[in-house]
Amino acid sequence: MSLFHRSTAVLYDTEYQFMQMSKVPTLHFQASLPRLPVPKLEDSCRRYLNAQKPLLNQKELQNTSSSVSKFLASEGQNLQKLLLQQNAENSHTSYISEPWFDMYLQDRKPLPINYNPFLVYVPESDPKYDAQLVKATNIVVSSLRFLKSFKNNILEPEIFHMKPEKSDTPLFRNVTRLIPSRFSWYGAYLFKV
């Protein structure tokens, strides 16, 4: 095998090992993101009742509204104080992180069945790729490529470009990757990201 063919094969193998090869590290903006504020208890209760309206009849909604009012006047205030205190003591994370990890990430039930209602597979243009074994293999391989990209910190960060012509550019990626992580969100903001 010639040197050219060997280096091309190595390059292809390296590129295939990863889902993406971003210049900006995967979690580069994480340390500088503003923390989620703890919502006011009254706002949370109001949103809860609004979410119940389409699900409950008038009598059930009145009972629920009464229970929410009692909650607001009694234990809700104490729980809100505890939440605010816990949030103040853990400035390195969000108030929602621990419950999220407890509920979603530590549960050992299969995610596709218990949390994601369904998966949709688009039929392939070549029918030989629609076989169950081939689809399952491709899912496993793609999952491993994703995991390897994440562990190597080369997945493109999840960002929203408000002005893609200005920010979805090599200049944006080169500049923001050089900004220290704890300030990177502010640099991205200047690019309207």
Can you walk through the features of this model?
There is one protein chain. Helix content is 58%, strand content 0%. It has 193 residues and is mainly alpha-helical. The chain is extended, with a radius of gyration of 24 Å. It starts with a helix and ends with a helix. Helix 2 (41-52) packs antiparallel against helix 3 (58-73) and helix 9 runs antiparallel to helix 10 (184-190).
Could you outline the blueprint of secondary structure elements for this entry?
Blueprint: H1 3-17, H2 41-52, H3 58-73, H4 75-89, H5 97-105, H6 111-114, H7 132-151, H8 164-167, H9 170-178, H10 184-190
Helix pairs in contact: 2-3, 9-10
User: Quick one: biggest sheet?
Assistant: none
The third-level CATH topology of the domain at 19-36 and 129-193 is Monooxygenase
Which ranges are low-confidence, i.e. pLDDT below 50, for 5 or more consecutive residues?
A: 1-7
Number of helical regions = 10
The number of E-state strands comes to 0
**CATH architecture tag of the domain at 19-36 and 129-193:** Up-down Bundle
Order of helices and strands: HHHHHHHHHH
Protein structure class: mainly alpha
End-to-end separation in angstroms reads 46 Å
Molecular shape: extended
Average pLDDT, to the nearest integer? Answer: 85
Proportion of residues in extended strands: under 5%
Summarize the amount of helix as a percent range. 55-70%
The CATH class of the domain at 19-36 and 129-193 is Mainly Alpha
Computed Rg:
24 Å
